[in-house]
């Protein structure tokens, strides 16, 4: 069994792998419809030269450099070069507003910015000028920069500062305790905070994940498809530094709209995903097979039936003929949709409804739900076949990770993976880091096999007017499994009962309109009593499985979906409750009157 070496820092790990892999492909991107690779050796040359270029442009060890780019080879090369120059990477989302960028530039004290495109630069440069910081800007693609900014071309910096990767590797004398990056949380509850991740924290994660792959699946030539934003800690570690640790290849997806096609082309062995993607895929796969009807629909129903029985305790002897049928006629077709060699799809970033996980497990997709936080680099635990996969758990902790449950049910974490604190925010640091333990804010329990189960987010708990706790994420997950509902938010803090804000599913809405001979204009549908009754039936189906305290008594329909653009979703697709409450608070409050 292979194991991961004990590296002193992320830069050394990269240059070590690059020397081993040489001209083997490393980073892949699609150009003019064709996948084109950057080799390990070429990536190392670019990292070394860009690091020298950053130093020549005035960047000093310890300086913060903001990185604003879509997922692409230049993202990875820039990140590694920033660290190789002794600086600290500050990744930010491409969906950030000018105000978001200005806040991060000012808060982090960034004195340099790398930005990928002219379109992104328009927002970033305005923020740079507004903040009076980060006056050195480096553009990856051709772009025009306003006066008053020290502007550099990314490719020119590399070309003008040729550096031997061996020399750059020799200068990487950073320790595991040294700061590698400041990753700003996506702000589900307010202004983003800068999480200080040190080299050792990310290396700890990479080693723990590598051990899981080696022990449970076998570590070979791994291929990753990266599509979650690299500015998020989950993809930054899982989709970049973990593949580097394994000496794997990274393909950068063309976008969510082309993800299914990219999976079939690339045939990845490991993917990191978020629950929302699986909820969407579940709906699409179910609808596509239902439309086919006949044998396809029968095999889907049989696969789900067998999967549920196996999850509940085991299959019967009488199930063997159906199991053989599903295994030979159905699962290979599903496997082909996922490329045909997928070892595991790892879900994290938000809670997963067990029904969704069981759906994919029943279809033969190895599905591992993990758990983590940006403050823990971010992976804390992950389900693994060796221990036994439970869809209502997030698996045992990674190696060398201590987890315990506090008296009030809060999950506490200790180990090298835990951040050193929030950047320039001693009060928040003191609140979550106590005696070496990270107070996650999540409520959970640990079973006899050492697997963690998350029951809710401590700060998201709704406490009604009787002092009873309600877990909103569970109810929201149940609602969005209904075909009529695509998104939902529960409301009812210090109130006598729960109410909901519901976003109807657009495909179901079109089908309902066609069946009822009604024009599909949402502003009119929102007032249509028959339409609201149909959605109410979905709410009632959910209510049947809820306690009296949890049941939804009334609901209101949202004006539009929750999106990143309207700031009602974070870039990692979590709902921003405080933003949604600001928009819909009056209407939700009105549900308690009359």
Write the layout of secondary structure elements.
Blueprint: H1 10-21, E1 25-31, E2 34-39, H2 40-56, E3 64-68, H3 73-84, E4 88-92, H4 98-108, E5 112-115, H5 118-131, E6 136-139, E7 150-153, H6 154-160, H7 165-171, E8 179-184, E9 194-198, H8 199-216, E10 223-226, H9 233-246, E11 249-252, H10 259-266, E12 270-273, H11 275-292, H12 294-312, H13 320-337, E13 344-347, H14 354-362, E14 367-372, E15 379-382, E16 402-405, E17 410-414, E18 421-422, H15 426-432, E19 433-434, E20 437-446, E21 452-457, E22 462-463, E23 469-470, H16 472-480, E24 485-491, E25 498-504, H17 506-516, H18 522-525, H19 529-543, E26 552-557, H20 577-590
Parallel strand pairs: 1-11, 3-4, 3-5, 5-6, 6-7, 10-11, 12-13, 13-14, 25-26
Antiparallel strand pairs: 1-2, 8-9, 9-18, 14-15, 16-17, 17-20, 19-20, 20-21, 22-23, 24-25
Helix pairs in contact: 1-2, 1-7, 1-9, 2-3, 2-6, 2-7, 4-5, 8-9, 11-12, 11-14, 12-13, 12-14
